[in-house]
Structures are given as structure tokens and as C-alpha cells.
Specification:
2 copies of one chain form a homodimer.
Chain A lengths: L2 H44 L3 H32 L3 H37 L6 H24 L2 H31 L4 H33 L8 H7 L3
């Protein structure tokens, strides 16, 4: 074999690996920022901190730009490097995860907007305990989903999917409480509705964290586990 | 040039074109089914037709499977054909559109579930006019977005994005009315909440139709127009 050529190939594949690593690190950087957005949005709502809420909404623009940039990076790698199966899966999974992160950012910005409305219209008499609780949970789920992605860790990914089911249950129960409360005190409806929309946004964040986790499972196992139950998912993963 | 080789290349590129056409036609087939789901979901809600609602929820499983299948098709094409810039864009755009279609399907299934709840818990005293109106609009937007995709028609895509802004306005106004109504008649809160969630699902369908339309613009113009205002979008398209 021609040594020069070999060195050339090594060089190319080193560049390619660098590019893949860069996408991954950009994704995790975006993830870190998004996770902070979730936390700040919840804080702005619970502490009626309209300044923090304004910040969250401003930062969302940066996150949108990150989505576009990383997506472009992914397309460029596919076009120029024509990656083989497992590398291609990584790039596609990254591009999908970026999309979910952007949506988590969107939901955080929505919560920040609701925090501002609650500052103007007056606090809701109920719902803050639920927001803090479910909010903490989905923020941690977002973090775990990213850790799972970084480490290609299927166990953690599965745990996130399992936790999303619990979040859905807690969300349903909180929602029933809010409806009951509105019936008892109709004058509070407008303000409680802001809490309802916030809870809804948090529940969506949980869904997106779960999507990222399912993506990790696809990446590691090559199996598409969207739209299947946790039981089926455990079977796929031989649990 | 070697004629045999040429014939071979022609053969490969013919196969490749066939594969691209097949993805496109599968996408449009899925789109047709999703559009029907939107219509049926709205009908089941307005006419309190629980049988139709059950159908919509059953069909959603088929749509989920279509997403997985077409997504696999896209990944396979990228891995095996290593398409160049514009073809790659088509495959990526198709894969994203499929994801939005699946979510439109999801929102339709949610509406069907709310239709079933309204059948059990009793009709809402208000909101059907708004659901019919906004529902018709987002169903047509879904259709237009798919037409824009099939014909690579930027004008139609832009019109969908513009219409989404109007839908958002109508949604906000309908939402204010529902809140006012709940305050006037607190006993109706539970039932009106089902209408509120349905309106919310319709508004999300509009968002997804807009995503598909933005995707068409990316495909034709190579410009990412997510996260920008309609004014900026018109500027990008030299309107």
C-alpha cells in the first residue's frame, strides 16, 4: 500500500472525527444553555422575577440561532464526508436532538412570557408547588437526556423515558386540581390559566427530553423506539 | 468514455431518482392521510361522533408507523447513495416534513380524544364555531403545505406561513372568549376546557403546517427561514 496515501486517509479521517466531536460538543453546549433556560424560566415564574423572564426570552434567540448553525454543520458533514452507517446515525441523531432542544427552549420562553403576565395580572392563588415540582423534574430529565447522549448511555436514556410517564401522571393530576380550583373561585380563572399553560409547557419539555432519550437508544441500538410503550421499550433493550 | 460504464452510471442514477420519487410519493401519501385525520378529528368533535373519534385514534398508529418507515427510507438513501447537495436537501427536508406530519397526526388524535370526553361529559356550551373555523383553516394549510412540497412552490409555502400568523391571532381571540365564558358560567369550566385544549391542538397543527412550508423554502432557496418574521421571510424571497 502507498504510505503517502495512507497518511492522507488518516488525515481525512482525523478531520472527520474532529468534525463529529465538534458537532457533539456544540450540541452539548446548546443543551447546557437550554437546561439553564428551563431553570430560569421556572424561577422567573415562581419568584415573579420579570427581569429574569425578559432575559430568558432574549436568550431564546441565541438558542434558535444555535439550532440553525448546528443543523447546517450536520448537513455539511453528510454532504462532504458521506459518513457510513454508524457515523451517519450519529449526525442524524444530533440533528434531531438539536430540534428537540430548540423546542425545549421555546417552551421555556413561553413560561417566561407567562411569568411576565403573572407579574402584570397578579399571582395565581394556586399551582406554584406543582410548577416547582414538575419543573425540577423535567429540568433534570433534560440534563439526563443530554448526559445519555454524551455517554451513549442506554440505561440513562431508558430512565428518562420511564420518568416521562410519571411526569404525565403528575401533570394530569395537577391539571384536575387547577380545574377544580377555578370552579371554586371563578375570579381567579385568568390567573390560574397562566399556571395551566405553564404546566402544559413543562409537560411538553418532558416529552422532548424523552424524544432525545429515544434518539440515544436509536443511536446505540439501531432501533427506532418512538411510539412504543415503556414495556415494549424494555423488551427491545432486553431488560 | 466507456459506454458500458456510462450505461451503468445511468442505471444507478435512474435507480436513485426512482428512490427519491418513491420517498416523495410516500410522504404525500402520509400527508393525504394526515390531512384526512385533521378533518375527521374536527368532525368527530363538532358532531359528537365517538365512533369516528375511535377511528381517528386507531389510524394514528398507522401514521406513526409511516413516520418510522419513511425515516428509515431517507437514512438508507443517504447511506447508500451519498446524494449531493440538492438531492441531500430533498431527503433531509422530506425527513423533517414527515416528523411534522406525524405531530399533526398526534394533535388530531388528541382532538379525537377530547371529542370522546365531550361525548361522555356533555357538550361544551361554546366554542364550536371557533373550532370549525380555525379547524378548516389549519386543515387547508396542511394541504397547501403538502402541495407546496410536491411542486416545490415557494409562493404557496409563503402563503402558508402568512396564514399561520392569522391563525395565531384567531386562536388568541377565541381563547380570550373561552376564558370570559368560563368566568360567566363556572359550571361549564370542565367542558369548556376540552374546547380550549382542542383549539390549542389546532393552533399547533397550524405551526407544523408552517414548519413544512418553511422546509419547502429551505429546499428551493437553500435558506433557513425558521425563527424569522414574515417580513424578513418576504425579504429573503425578494417579495
Amino acid at each position: 500500500m502507498d504510505l503517502t496515501n495512507d497518511a492522507h486517509t488518516d488525515h481525512i479521517s482525523q478531520q472527520f472525527n474532529d468534525e463529529l466531536e465538534r458537532v457533539k460538543s456544540h450540541l452539548l453546549e446548546m443543551g447546557g444553555l437550554v437546561e439553564q433556560q428551563v431553570g430560569d424560566a421556572i424561577k422567573s415564574l415562581i419568584e415573579a422575577d420579570s427581569e429574569l423572564a425578559v432575559n430568558v426570552r432574549a436568550t431564546d434567540k441565541r438558542i434558535n440561532q444555535m439550532e440553525i448553525d448546528i443543523d447546517e454543520e450536520c448537513t455539511r458533514i453528510i454532504a462532504r464526508r458521506q459518513p457510513a452507517a454508524s457515523d451517519l446515525r450519529l449526525v442524524i441523531a444530533a440533528s434531531k436532538a438539536v430540534n428537540d432542544l430548540e423546542r425545549i427552549g421555546d417552551e421555556s420562553a413561553k413560561i417566561a412570557r407567562l411569568a411576565m403576565k403573572l407579574c402584570e395580572e397578579g399571582e395565581s392563588p394556586r399551582g406554584y408547588v406543582e410548577i416547582r415540582h414538575i419543573g425540577d423534574r423535567v429540568r433534570r430529565m433534560t440534563q439526563s437526556a443530554l448526559t445519555a447522549f454524551a455517554r451513549l448511555d442506554v440505561e440513562t436514556a431508558l430512565a428518562v423515558a420511564q420518568e416521562d410517564k410519571e411526569v404525565d401522571r403528575e401533570y394530569e393530576s395537577a391539571m384536575r386540581e387547577m380545574v377544580t380550583y377555578m370552579m371554586e373561585d371563578p375570579r381567579s380563572i385568568k390567573r390560574v390559566m397562566n399556571v395551566i399553560w405553564s404546566l402544559r409547557a413543562l409537560e411538553r419539555i418532558g416529552d422532548h427530553a424523552r424524544n432525545i432519550a429515544e434518539n440515544v437508544i436509536y443511536l446505540v441500538k439501531g432501533k427506532d423506539v418512538r411510539h412504543i410503550s415503556i414495556d415494549e421499550m424494555e423488551k427491545v433493550l432486553d431488560k
